[in-house]
Amino acid sequence: MCSIHYFPVTMERQGGRFYIGLDMHFVGDMATADRAHWFIPVLYGGDRRRELPMVLVAGGSRYRSLRLALWGLGSNILRSYHIKKLLQAAGRAVIDYPYRISLPYEEWMDKAEITVIQQ
Question: What's the superkingdom here (predicted)?
Answer without folding.
Answer: Bacteria
